[in-house]
Design goal:
two-stranded antiparallel ribbon; metal-binding; 2 helices; binds zinc ion; zinc ion binding; alpha+beta; zinc-finger
């Protein structure tokens, strides 16, 4: 059973096909504080990461990665920051214009 990326509305599966597109998968931090921050960043109601939960590389900035080794790693203390949220989860001021 391939693993899904945990991000909202992301359909990337941990498969060879996806890996061939240059997408890598990264586990949540073991550190509780950092893991919590990642969970909050995902903005998924009631979501709790498990030890096998993963995020794909599409939610991180290019500079978040350490590509010097054979395995692509995330740098220490990076946060996932790129998501496509549905409108109701986006922080926009546009609502103020609606009467
Ligand atoms: Zn993803």
């Amino acid at each position: 059973m391939p693993q899904f990326c945990s991000a909202y509305s992301c359909l990337n599966l941990r498969t060879v096909d996806v890996r061939d597109r240059g997408i890598t998968f990264h586990k949540f931090p073991k550190d509780k504080e950092r893991r919590k921050r990642w969970e909050i960043a995902l903005r998924r109601d009631g979501f709790t990461a498990s030890d096998s939960s993963v995020l794909c590389s599409e939610h991180f900035k290019t500079e978040d990665f350490d590509k010097t080794g054979q395995i692509v790693r995330l740098r220490a203390d990076v946060m996932p920051s790129i998501f496509s949220f549905p409108v109701h989860l986006q922080r926009v001021g546009a609502l103020l214009k609606v009467h």
